[in-house]
Design a protein that fits this description.
Layout (H helix, E strand, L loop, with lengths): L3 E8 L3 E3 L16 H7 E7 H13 L12 E5 L11 E3 L3 H10 L4 E6 L1 H9 L5 E7 L7 E2 L10 E8 L5 E7 L7
Parallel strand pairs: 1-6, 1-7, 3-4, 3-6, 4-5
Antiparallel strand pairs: 2-8, 7-10, 9-10
């Protein structure tokens, strides 16, 4: 079965964007493992707001959602959109059931690209298998938090960590199997 991997940049104080939606704090000076990550995926789960931002970027950058990312199948989660661009698939009714079906299909892993509401929903449904966080050495002091209040604890198992000379720390965790109180 394919894995759903939440992969994104986060500040040390836990924000994925600033108070005005800005992400100008994200490092873009090197690859930070993206090329290797792109080889693992062939699909993207993306929420409405993140989709709009990605489409604006793609329009100005030869159709690429993210710099250097190869073409992938896009699944857009929205209750308000009525159409999406190109070959993207709009998921609105029974979106979590559809996500389960997509995850069960053959293929490479799926990148949970964002946003916060979609992340919350997929986490609550137990559909996220891995977290890949690029922790940036900055405290924003406010913005959109990576995780909102949850009903229970979620144990994690560290799969990989890598520190870069810029101070960015890449952390990859498997969801589940973690031990509390060690």
């Amino acid at each position: 079965m394919r894995k759903v991997i939440l992969g994104l940049a986060v500040t040390l104080d836990g924000y994925i964007e600033g108070p005005n939606g800005e992400y100008d704090w994200c490092f873009t000076d090197q690859d930070y493992g993206l090329k290797e990550f792109y080889a693992r995926i062939d699909a993207v789960f993306i929420g409405r707001k993140s989709y709009a931002i990605a489409q604006a970027y793609a329009a100005a950058n030869d159709g690429q959602l993210v710099p250097g990312m190869p073409p992938v199948k896009e699944y857009v989660f929205s209750r308000t959109l009525t159409a999406v661009e190109g070959d993207a698939v709009l998921l609105s009714d029974n979106a979590m059931a559809e996500a389960r079906k997509i995850k069960a299909q053959p293929g490479k892993d799926i990148w949970l690209y964002g946003g916060a509401s979609l992340t919350d929903a997929l986490m609550a449904e137990g559909l996220v298998d891995e977290l890949w966080m690029s922790v940036h050495p900055i405290l924003l002091g406010g913005g959109t938090p990576l995780f909102r209040t949850q009903d229970s604890r979620t144990p994690l198992t560290l799969l990989e960590s890598k520190t870069y000379e810029t101070g960015l720390v890449s952390l990859r965790y498997k969801i589940g199997d973690g031990k509390f109180g060690l």
